[in-house]
Amino acid sequence: MPGFDVTFIAGDGTRFPVWGSQRNPWITIAESSCDGLMDAPMETDWIEDTEGAVFSGERYKPRDMTIGLYIAEELSGSKQAGRLESDFRRAFSSRRDPWNPAARLPQVEVNSTLSGVRTLDAHLKAAPEMKMERDPYTNAIFDIVYELRAPQPLPTSGTEVDFFETSDSSGSGTVTVSNPTDTPCRHTWILTPGKWVLPDPSWQGPEGARVPAGEQATRTVTVDVTVADGGARITRERRKLHASTLTGANLLGRMNGNWVRFDIPPYTPLTQLPISVTGAPSSGARAEVHMPRLWSRFIGMEL
Questions:
Q1: CB-count exposure of residue 185 (10 Å: 0-12, 13-18, 19+)
Q2: What 3-state DSSP class applies to 216?
Q3: Which domain of life does the protein's organism represent (predicted)?
Q4: Which partner for 179 in 2, 30, 139, 264 could form a disulfide, CB atoms 3.0-4.6 Å apart?
Q5: Would 197 be classed as within a structural domain?
Q6: How many alpha carbons fall within 13 Å on the CB side of residue 208?
Q7: pLDDT in the model for residue 1
């Protein structure tokens, strides 16, 4: 029995298991035409000089996946040749449905005994290529290759959330952060009204033993959120406004350049960080820290 299952999930939630113990009998991956399901594509950057080169960083590129499939409708009992293949094709699109606010992109899901479930959003990169060596509609057997692209190439195992809250207008305590993955965690704060002092430490230490340390080990960020703001969102995620109110207004100017600077490093254990609030409504306040779990592979890379 394979140690992992692969499932394609349509934008409407329909599931198509294509490999593993739960695979549909009428569809399977063609192993000779499968590429892009291992490491996310990554390149390193270097600054060259007269004495060689100096490492300057790394960057992830879009993940392109080639998935060959055999769709044998003769095994499904379908009375309409091409119906199942058509349903599967409809599951994939080049973009999110612009007329449906609830629409989402299709996903590739890998569920392994080693690492559990990890998923990746994927666009249809190009029209599928159907091999026509035999009439697929007469034989009810389709040999087809899908080209998918994941602009964000790191599979996710979900988002961990921790919180601090108080039932008064002020209070202090801790939130617990961590990062078991092999990539930096670009976390997000969700804040109710109040004047917040958020932790933003620099980190040091070996894998599995990172701790707040270094020149900015006690660094904090102050965020003043008013009742009119409805709350605030502060995020380290790329391509998103770093600070905004929950009504959609830009909050950057109010922070006077004192923004959240530090990601949570890979392989950071559970760590409690101090947090406090003053000037909140008498009913209290709440701060949530959202920590996405992004991995460079669908399977593995845990400590």
A1: buried
A2: coil
A3: Bacteria
A4: 264
A5: yes
A6: 3
A7: 41
How much is the pLDDT for 216? 96
Q: Span 281-300, mean pLDDT?
A: 97
**pLDDT tens readout for residues 155-174:** 999 999 999 999 999 999 99
Residues 115 and 227 both lie in one domain: no
Helix, coil or strand: residue 113: coil
pLDDT of residue 174: 98
Which structural domain, as residue segments, surrounds residue 64?
Answer: 4-153
Q: How far apart are CA 130 and CA 136, in angstroms?
A: 9
DSSP string spanning 80-100? Answer: STTHHHHHHHHT--SS--TT-
Domain count of the fold of the chain: 2
234 & 176 share domain: yes
pLDDT surpassing 80 at residue 132: no
* pLDDT value for 78: 65
State the pLDDT at residue 135: 82
**Residue among 114, 41, 108, 106 nearest 299 (CA):** 114
99-127 burial, b at 16+ Cβ within 10 Å, e below that, comes to eeeeeebbbbbbbbeebeebbbbbbbbee
CA 59 vs. chain centroid, Å, equals 16
